[in-house]
């Protein structure tokens, strides 16, 4: 790895602790989670100090965690959650690291939910934001400004085929909502097919497309059919892609008029627990949907922007070219920015009526987006995601060989998942153990995400500047924490 890449270390971590009840601790101590050949717990030592990093945050002089929590409880929606019982008061960030109000550094292996792709407060991205803000913070897309046009051109250059026309939004939910609308307007049909276990957003259309009850309110959600998820680990057909694809055709034949508006899918399900599709499934599904007159939408909100390493976009790993691509999160490295990219012909469907987004394409946000693309290229972050991600996955696989609690390791590049189960054969979700491990990692200085329908999957989606030293610290911390269960 280039020295410049190694120098870009930045950790992100959440400080909090979950109270562990005595009965739970007793159950953990009695459960044999390691294989018979695994070393004794005493043989595993805590990881050494975080990799060296040349950055010291300014002293924090703001309100305390208790004061912030009190204001949140009084003035913010009770639906806003935090990951730990005692949440981390994050006040500073640099590259793959986060710092709390006490100045403690954490390795951020979650990346703001697969959002911080270049690294926290990357100087090039910050400079682009500051310079644009000094000149023009906002006007309207009704006036000309080069920022939005320059970014649209650069984004189009990263996409295959005739995917070259962009409409900018503020988030992934907005992008997916708009993509579904465009598909309906273009095809004249209303039926949409998505996959079970998927997550596409929390607005009207995207909540309907989402297929996990924990993310769906009890409101009318019509016109969406959820196909069997082609999940090689938990799916009913294993890795037999043709059997999964047959369900898509059955939905078209028996659940619609025979014509559909769209099929929407993530290349790797993020919120669903970093679930990969059975190889060969997506080309079959795309073909069936297109024969039914529908458009194929690739939700690249989490898997896009070089995160999978081998390719710039997740859908490219499946050998397909979608009709519409939705992006967000990594597109702005933390700036509120999303986009729908499609062909000129399909884009015309949106001209049937007036459609407007006040902040979509804001000059500050699009300046940040352009800077992100340049940083990915300049610092070879896609290559780094492949090299470090492959190394990290290899080390995680070694933990799976060592501990029975790990049921599956999956994902590509720096979008990896580790699923915990109490019984490998039955694949019983280890929900309590996952929470315990999450907290133990936090105590050691590592922050990871949690996902999956059962909440038993570690979501590892760090900034693409993550290093092998970071990967070693993460795995060593997991090893130590698992050895103590």
From TrEMBL:
<dbReference type="GO" id="GO:0008453">
    <property type="term" value="F:alanine-glyoxylate transaminase activity"/>
</dbReference>
<dbReference type="InterPro" id="IPR049704">
    <property type="entry name" value="Aminotrans_3_PPA_site"/>
</dbReference>
<dbReference type="Pfam" id="PF00202">
    <property type="entry name" value="Aminotran_3"/>
</dbReference>
<dbReference type="InterPro" id="IPR015421">
    <property type="entry name" value="PyrdxlP-dep_Trfase_major"/>
</dbReference>
<dbReference type="GO" id="GO:0009853">
    <property type="term" value="P:photorespiration"/>
</dbReference>
<keyword id="KW-0808">Transferase</keyword>
<dbReference type="GO" id="GO:0005739">
    <property type="term" value="C:mitochondrion"/>
</dbReference>
<keyword id="KW-0663">Pyridoxal phosphate</keyword>
<comment type="similarity">
    <text>Belongs to the class-III pyridoxal-phosphate-dependent aminotransferase family.</text>
</comment>
<dbReference type="InterPro" id="IPR015422">
    <property type="entry name" value="PyrdxlP-dep_Trfase_small"/>
</dbReference>
<dbReference type="GO" id="GO:0030170">
    <property type="term" value="F:pyridoxal phosphate binding"/>
</dbReference>
<protein>
    <recommendedName>
        <fullName>alanine--glyoxylate transaminase</fullName>
        <ecNumber>2.6.1.44</ecNumber>
    </recommendedName>
</protein>
<keyword id="KW-0601">Photorespiration</keyword>
<dbReference type="InterPro" id="IPR015424">
    <property type="entry name" value="PyrdxlP-dep_Trfase"/>
</dbReference>
<dbReference type="InterPro" id="IPR005814">
    <property type="entry name" value="Aminotrans_3"/>
</dbReference>
<keyword id="KW-0032">Aminotransferase</keyword>
């Amino acid at each position: 790895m280039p020295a410049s890449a190694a120098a870009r270390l930045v950790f992100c971590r959440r400080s909090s602790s979950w109270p562990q009840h005595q009965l739970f601790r007793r159950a953990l101590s009695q459960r044999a989670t390691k294989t018979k050949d695994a070393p004794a717990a005493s043989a595993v030592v805590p990881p050494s100090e975080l990799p060296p990093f040349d950055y010291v945050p300014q002293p924090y002089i703001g309100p305390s965690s208790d004061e912030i929590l009190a204001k949140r409880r009084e003035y913010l929606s009770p639906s806003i959650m935090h990951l730990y019982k005692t949440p981390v008061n994050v006040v500073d960030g640099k590259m793959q690291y986060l710092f709390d109000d006490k100045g403690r550094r954490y390795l951020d292996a979650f990346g703001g939910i697969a959002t911080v792709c270049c690294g926290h407060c990357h100087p090039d991205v910050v400079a682009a934001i500051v310079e644009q803000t000094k000149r023009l913070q906002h006007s309207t897309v009704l006036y000309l400004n080069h920022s939005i046009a320059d970014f649209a051109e650069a984004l189009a250059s990263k996409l295959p085929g005739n995917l070259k026309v962009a409409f900018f939004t503020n988030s992934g939910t907005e992008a997916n909502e708009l993509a579904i609308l465009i598909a309906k307007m273009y095809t004249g049909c209303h039926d949409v097919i998505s996959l079970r276990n998927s997550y596409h957003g929390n607005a009207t259309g995207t909540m309907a497309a989402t297929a996990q009850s924990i993310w769906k309110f009890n409101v009318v959600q019509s016109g969406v059919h959820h196909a069997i998820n082609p999940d090689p680990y938990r799916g009913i057909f294993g890795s037999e892609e043709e059997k999964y694809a047959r369900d898509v055709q059955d939905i078209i034949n028996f659940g619609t008029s025979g014509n559909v508006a769209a099929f929407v899918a993530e290349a790797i399900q993020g919120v669903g627990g970093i679930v990969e599709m059975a190889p060969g499934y997506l080309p079959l599904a795309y073909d069936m949907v297109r024969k039914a007159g529908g458009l194929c939408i690739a939700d690249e909100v989490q898997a896009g922007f070089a995160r999978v390493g081998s390719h710039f976009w997740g859908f490219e790993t499946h050998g397909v070219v979608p009709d519409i691509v939705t992006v967000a999160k990594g597109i702005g490295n933390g700036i509120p920015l999303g986009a729908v990219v499609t062909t000129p012909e399909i884009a015309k469907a949106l001209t049937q009526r007036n459609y407007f987004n006040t902040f979509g394409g804001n000059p500050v946000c699009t300046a940040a987006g352009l800077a992100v693309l340049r940083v990915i290229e300049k610092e070879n972050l896609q290559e780094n995601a492949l090299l470090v991600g492959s190394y990290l996955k290899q080390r995680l696989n070694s933990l799976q060989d060592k501990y029975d609690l790990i049921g599956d390791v999956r994902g590509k590049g720096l979008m990896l998942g580790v699923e915990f189960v109490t019984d490998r054969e039955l694949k019983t979700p280890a929900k309590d153990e996952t929470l315990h491990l999450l907290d133990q990692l936090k105590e050691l200085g590592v922050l990871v995400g949690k996902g999956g329908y059962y909440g038993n999957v570690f979501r590892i989606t760090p900034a693409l500047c993550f290093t092998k030293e970071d990967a070693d610290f993460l795995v060593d911390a997991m090893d130590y924490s698992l050895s103590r269960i």
